[in-house]
Amino acid sequence: MNYLHTIQSFIEGNTVLSATFSVLLLIVAGMVAHLICKFFVVKAVRRVFFSAHKNQVPLDKDVRISEKLSNFIPVITVYYLLQFMPELPEHLLIAIKTICGILFFVYLSLFFTEVLEIVNNSYSRKSKRKNHSIKGYIQIGKILVHILSAIMILAIMSNKSPVIIISSLGAVAAVLMLVFQHTLLSLVANIQVSSNDVLQLGDWIEMPDNGISGEVIDIALHTITIRNWDNTLSRIPTKNFLTETYTNWQAMFSSGARRIMRSFYLDQTSIRFVDQAMVQQMSQLRGVSEQLSALMDGRDPGVVGDRWFAENGLTNLTVFRHYLTWWLAQRDDIRKDMYLVVRAMKPSPEGLGVEVYCFTSSVVWAEYENSQSAIFEYIYAVLETFSLRIYQHPAGNDFWRLSQARAQAAGPGDTAAE
Questions:
Q1: In angstroms, rounded to a whole number, what is the distance separating the alpha carbons of residues 266 and 353?
Q2: Rounded Cα gap, residues 72 and 26, in angstroms
Q3: Where are the domains of the chain?
Q4: What is the pLDDT of residues 368-388, one digit of tens each?
Q5: Which of 158, 160, 190, 279, by CA, is between 20 and 30 Å from 149?
């Protein structure tokens, strides 16, 4: 006992050694409190916040929240034990309290950040609107939490009221707005994009000026991430969706129909009035006779002469347009309740354009392309039945055939004379 009393008297007599011993005691107490929390806070958090889950099922949210909560206990323990150590030097006591206060608000901001992240993940999994994202709002909340924590830390370090710190920020408001102008613009843009539902997760976005065409996979505060169809990733500033032109194809998917609007070009010299020979050739196709009869007000095409067709302006292109419209309406992959038009366009050096305008009953890309290809393949094949020709620029094979035809027309004697 005398030996212990001597050590205690020595420590109390040595100020530096006494302060060192007290600091070590505080560190050990904080570590012990931290270890205890690691084992018991998880069960407490699960019982209070996640009691609906089975206890034997480990939950990631339990661990994440308990880790953040366990950081508070050592700080609170150290701060509480300081009340029983009045013999510490004043400057050391203030320093330890300041550190505890700073750590408390740092851990508090981390805790609320983790809670906001869990809310975001839970909303993404359980929300009925699977394509709606609140990530932008969550990031705004994180920024506010960090700003408030920074203000409290500054107040603790300067030993001033937080109200004074906040009021002093008005003097540097212009500087802060200049520094955070992109954040403020992104904040406004994110609120408008999210509140008006003009952009959602899974939407097909196309921005031709930036060479972007793909699916929206993430909507954050500052950027929107798009996975292009070539599996590359593009990140566009959120504010660009308020200032730049883009196309959202989601309305097309919602309508259940996808538009076909494609033209083919005819050789204008192949367009002429219908005659009896042409009628016999066209009548081999099912449906042409009905279209001719409708165009001729119920007359029999076999009885009417060639002059009647010319006087009434009935051309092979007219019959073909009406036949193609009827043929498209018979297809199961074409919507009948939407526009279905086959029209002649303005003539050009490429020929006379004929546009097919209709809607497919499937919005799936592969099925849409198959339907579109099948339609135009049939058009190219059936044009000859109507004595129409597709226009295309002369190719090398065309010049070769022309030279062969001239050589045959000249004969062997003329070739030898040359």
A1: 6
A2: 15
A3: 2-179, 193-253, 257-396
A4: 999 999 999 999 999 999 999
A5: 190
